[in-house]
Amino acid sequence: MLRKITGNELALKYSLQGKNKNKAAFDQLALYKVICRAVQTSDVAGNMTEKGIEKVVSRWFSGASGRHGGRAKRQKPAPQQDAAIEINRHSGDETDVADD
User: Fold this and answer.
1) I want to staple 23 with a disulfide (CB 3.0 to 4.6 A). Which of 8, 15, 39, 53 is the partner?
2) For residue 55, what pLDDT is reported?
3) Cα 26 to the chain's mean position, in Å?
4) Residue 39 near residue 6, CB atoms below 8 Å
């Protein structure tokens, strides 16, 4: 539901309670109350508690910086596995062990 209602650009500007990184408090918006009511009256998640909704919403906002390539930009390239590459020290050539 949050993905359809809030874009990632908005999600980057809010956290649930507005305590982190000078973000605005989403739980103070009327939209948050509408979302809570919609979830609690839905057939799919109607038994979800307010604490459960808070947890899901909080996780949604905390993951905003990693969406749309943000996580990939922050991660370092994975190191090559030593077992997969054999280096011929005499010539400097690399030979893929899997091709043997």
Assistant:
1) 15
2) 93
3) 17
4) no
Q: CA torsion angle for 85, 86, 87, 90 (degrees, to 10)?
A: -160
Sign of CA dihedral 3, 7, 13, 18: negative
- Residue showing tokens 């909080």: 58
CB contact at 8 A, 53 and 39: yes
Handedness of CA 16, 17, 21, 23 (dihedral sign): positive
pLDDT for the residue 44: 84
Structure tokens at 53: 């909704």
**pLDDT tens for residues 7-33?**
788 888 888 999 877 899 999 999 999
Rounded CA gap, 26 and 11, in Å?
9
Token digits of residue 76? 């370092």
**Tokens at 48, concatenated:** 């979800």
Cα separation of 100 and 50, whole Å? 58
